[in-house]
Amino acid sequence: MKKISALIILLAVVLYSAPFSFGEGQGMRLRGPLDKAFEALKRFDYFTAKELFEKSTKKEPAGAYYGLSLIFANDKNPFHNLDSALAVIVKSDQSFALLEEKDKKKLAEIDVTANSIAAQKQEIFGLAFEDVNKVNTVERCEWFLAGFKEAPQLNEVVKLRNHLAYLNVEKEGTYQAFKSYVDKYPAAEDLLIATEKYETTLYETLTSSKTIQSYIDFLKQYPKTTYRKEAENKIYEISVIKGKIKEYHEFIKKYPDNHNVPEAWRKIYSIYTADSNPESFADFRLEYPDYPYKDEVLKDLEIAKSRYYPAVKDKKWGFVNGNGKVVIPFEYDWCESFSEGIAEVGKADKAGFINKKGEAITPVQYAEVEPFNNGFAIVGNEEFYGMIDYTGKVVVPLKYEEVFDFSEGLARVLLNDKYGFVNKSGALVIPFLFDDAADFSENRAVVEFNGKKGYIDKAGNIVIPYDFDDANPFKDGLARVGKDELYGIISKTGEPIVHCEYDEIGEFSEGLAVVVKGEKYGYVDKNGQLLIPLIYEFGSGKPLIELAFKNGKAPITVKGKKGLIDKAGKEFIAPQFEDIGVYTEGLLAVKKKGKWGYIDSTQKTIVKFEFEFAGNFSEGLARVKRTDKFGYIDNKGLTQTPSVFDEAGDFKNGIAKVSEKGKLGFINKNNAYVLPCEIDEAGKMLEGDVVLLKKNRKMAYFNLKSGNYIWREAGYSAD
């Protein structure tokens, strides 16, 4: 504690350095108890001074209490007590105010005046304030505030008290402590942060179990909490943790007032219609009639029905619809056609995905992307690959050297040159054990280990041992396998249906599979029986697919002549022709003496042998070649289109592609040009009878049904 002020001590020394004291215009003042008390104080004889001051309080209270205040305020004596110092200086002030002027003048001789009393009071306030700052506790602040209410430092002490109290409750850290503080100190500068802390600790404490019920109970007890939104978010997150439609719908029904309900509805809608299939939108409307954004469904249904085509303008790509209207702006460096309602787009060296609204499914951020397939798309960065779903969420992390499409719920992945399998959640369910692997088919997957192949189930168990040099996926319960360069067929238990004794075995077609041994072939059924013996001539290198049964018939060769057999092995067309086509629409194209014609099932000639080439019938017409040009005939051999084309294709949907002098065009079955032979390239038929054309190195879309261009790139029509 500070020493008594130098001014006070100096005054005491001056006043009591002589036995008499004179005031201006006054006579001599005789020494009494009060004078002796100040003299003792000058000698630091606090005991004597205190005793004399106390004796003087009745006759000269103003001076005596003033002197006592000097003693109590001084921390160098055993009587130090600031409460007492203040109490007696107040009495001194009160007593002095009641004195007559002559008595005040007498006291002034020993420097007890209104100013000195006031100065002493301020000195005490200052000492008390210093004490508060030194002790620095709430309790000391409260002491000051209770006993020194007239002190000018009162507001400062209030602020200090409030802040110290806040530090205490912050250290305690309970919501009860913060609540008590808020209630007790409503004007505190820390009130705002204390209130926030109260809300936070209350929320964290009452929901510490992090269960749905804890959040529900919290909101019931504190409906006006500032943490309502966060608590509702937690209820939402836990309720829909798997992201399934059923979870979102249950959430909506159980918590209709939760602010996440609109988001839950949109999630249901997004998942349900993620494939952008028009049927999905229609089914959604029926299944969820209470969906709050019905107009959006109708609009999206129309978009889903629309056909969008990639188009380029000024070297930037976008999309046009079937009317040629730009529906997605030209802002990409490249783009691909929509697949499952989502299209690949790119900018610079990065790729991403958009939907038909032009909204980004993912940012343009991947080094490589592949089209969506059954709800998932393979994506890659500079080193590794993973997979995303319709929403753009990464379901298979980008950490594999190769990733393949899902098949029966599992996808092959390659890491450190070994294959394993992950599920649709991205979890590794079959470890990296295999040197090679194929997709699952009928709950079996071909795997290779140490140069031999076998089959595993979806749990990764070896269900058919590594006994084969070659193995193919199961189809209809059967699989082709090879051992020592010979082939057979096994069942799903690994039992041989056809022993490995054939040089080649084709896939089953219409219940039969071609088998080859040496230079002969026949057919086995699915029971492994050789239903049609190996008596037919097999040309080396002949694709087995050409020998498969089609429309109940298969080609045979006997002594270099060709014919057809039925599935019972009976000759349908006797082997007598140089070449033969496929039996379609009741007629068969056959070659005899270097010319082609057509016969029926009775081997009766329906169209004379006069063509250099004869194709299969399609939509009632067949393309034929004579004088080195192609045309079309009907099933009576009547010419429907003269032989004027260099090349010609089969009719499909009433349209055929033809070429003249190196240019392509399209004709209809009435022998009329849908599009003259003036284009350089024609792609495959797209949705809605639309075909992609190239001319002058520019692109266009042409509707074969309407016979009109729907969109042309600038420069397409230039000569």
List the helices and strands and how they pair.
Layout: H1 6-15, E1 21-22, E2 28-29, H2 33-42, H3 46-55, H4 61-73, H5 82-98, H6 101-108, H7 114-135, H8 138-147, H9 154-172, H10 175-184, H11 191-206, H12 212-221, H13 228-239, H14 245-254, H15 261-272, H16 278-287, H17 294-305, E3 309-313, E4 316-320, E5 326-332, E6 334-335, E7 342-347, E8 350-355, E9 360-366, E10 368-369, E11 376-380, E12 385-389, E13 394-400, E14 402-403, E15 411-415, E16 418-422, E17 428-434, E18 436-437, E19 445-449, E20 452-456, E21 462-468, E22 470-471, E23 478-483, E24 486-491, E25 496-502, E26 504-505, E27 512-517, E28 520-525, E29 530-537, E30 554-558, E31 561-565, E32 571-577, E33 579-580, E34 588-592, E35 595-599, E36 605-611, E37 613-614, E38 621-626, E39 629-634, E40 639-645, E41 647-648, E42 655-660, E43 663-668, E44 673-679, E45 681-685, E46 690-695, E47 698-703, E48 708-712
Antiparallel strand pairs: 1-2, 3-4, 4-5, 6-7, 7-8, 8-9, 10-11, 11-12, 12-13, 14-15, 15-16, 16-17, 18-19, 19-20, 20-21, 22-23, 23-24, 24-25, 26-27, 27-28, 28-29, 30-31, 31-32, 33-34, 34-35, 35-36, 37-38, 38-39, 39-40, 41-42, 42-43, 43-44, 45-46, 46-47, 47-48
Helix pairs in contact: 1-2, 2-3, 2-4, 3-4, 4-5, 4-7, 5-7, 8-9, 10-11, 12-13, 14-15, 16-17
Task: Name some characteristics of this structure.
four-stranded antiparallel β-sheet, elongated, 719 residues, single chain, alpha+beta, disordered N terminus, 29% helix
